[in-house]
């Protein structure tokens, strides 16, 4: 007996009562963010990436997110890791899309970009050496006008680079990562009494008053913000500097002692025309963080000159991780799996059918090698399975 089956897990959510049909319909018709990357974090394997030079492997040692990450070891120019994606839905045609990926390590000999039909369609971003900190790289590109454009995210070596780790690859709607509507304020702090700095050594600026301080993560005595959970943070700080007689004052954000490499996250305040004038400063930055990492607001002078600084505002807003954003309705995480296969043979008694190809698995819950789906959260699940049996009628079952 030969058959082909399509299994689709439509929704995963928590309801006070039984699952209703309109809940599944709401999910299917909602304008929610979708990650089209098929295997974004090597949770189960390294399938669905093109890895001709075999520079990418799966590692469970110190994963950036979840239980595993990609370890990438490019040894020569043009060696690539290509993250394959499902074809974009028709509703994205003509719109702008976004790619992004988390990278840790010395990525100075790597570049990242997106392609459609094998053609580069986004700006090419060159990596930096972020050390043990995680840096999220991203870019914008046109979603295309075809359902068969074969969208992909590419990490390409430009020489014999260091070993880096990659995780949380994303390809989809621009609003899916970093949407202001999805951000949560975790810090709002200030310091109206000026802080005196009189050295060229980088000094932590301390906001002594915090109106919002989620989880007590910000220490108003030391100026250190300790990250409670992984995610993306957008940072904003502004204030005034005074008594800058000569030289330049630099103010910016640091993550674990390393400058955040985001345009706008550092600013050089020039010398005032006279020492009684206040020179305003404003900085912004976005960074992906892991639990336990520390963020500070730093000031340093080009000369050993005394100056004073206040902090009118120091704010942080947290965006969910890419995996948290995908299929999220309201405040409940939605799991979605599509898998299919063409096994052959007969069914005798209770048989586990293994769907060997995954079209989508946004929470990395389905193991296509064993056929087992592990529920990521408690709740009510809706399954739909269809089978075409050779010589028999077509079957469809929901439960």
List the helices and strands and how they pair.
Layout: E1 3-13, H1 21-29, E2 49-50, E3 56-59, E4 69-72, E5 80-84, E6 96-106, E7 110-116, E8 119-120, E9 125-126, E10 129-142, E11 152-157, E12 164-173, E13 184-197, E14 203-204, E15 209-213, E16 225-226, E17 231-242, E18 249-255, E19 258-259, E20 266-269, E21 279-289, E22 294-301, E23 307-319, H2 322-325, E24 328-329, E25 332-333, E26 337-341, E27 357-361, E28 366-367, E29 372-373, E30 380-389, E31 394-398
Antiparallel strand pairs: 1-26, 1-30, 2-5, 3-4, 4-12, 5-11, 6-10, 6-12, 7-8, 7-9, 7-11, 13-15, 13-23, 14-22, 16-22, 17-21, 17-23, 18-19, 18-20, 18-22, 24-25, 26-27, 28-29, 30-31
> What is the CATH architecture assignment of the largest domain?
Sandwich
Shape: elongated
Tally of individual helices: 2
Unreliable parts:
1-32, 176-181, 322-333
CATH topology of the largest domain: Jelly Rolls
The termini sit apart by 24 Å
Report strand %: over 45%
| Record field, number of beta strands | 31
- CATH class call of the largest domain: Mainly Beta
The largest β sheet comes out as:
6 strands, antiparallel
pLDDT averaged over residues: 74
Helix content: under 10%
The overall number of domains is: 3
In a few lines, what is going on in this structure?
The chain is mainly beta.
Written overview of the protein:
With 399 residues, the protein is mostly beta strands. It folds into three domains: 3-30 and 329-398, no CATH class; 49-177, Jelly Rolls; 181-319, Jelly Rolls (Sandwich), CATH 2.60.120. Helices cover 3% and strands 48% of the residues. The protein has two helices and 31 strands. The protein has helices at residues 21-29, 322-325; strands spanning 3-13, 49-50, 56-59, 69-72, 80-84, 96-106, 110-116, 119-120, 125-126, 129-142, 152-157, 164-173, 184-197, 203-204, 209-213, 225-226, 231-242, 249-255, 258-259, 266-269, 279-289, 294-301, 307-319, 328-329, 332-333, 337-341, 357-361, 366-367, 372-373, 380-389, 394-398. Strands 2, 5, 7, 8, 9 and 11 form a six-stranded antiparallel β-sheet that branches. β7 (110-116) and β8 (119-120) form a beta hairpin. The longest helix is centred in the N-terminal third of the chain and has 9 residues, at 21-29. The protein is elongated, with a radius of gyration of 25 Å. Mean pLDDT is 74; it is low at 1-32, 176-181 and 322-333.
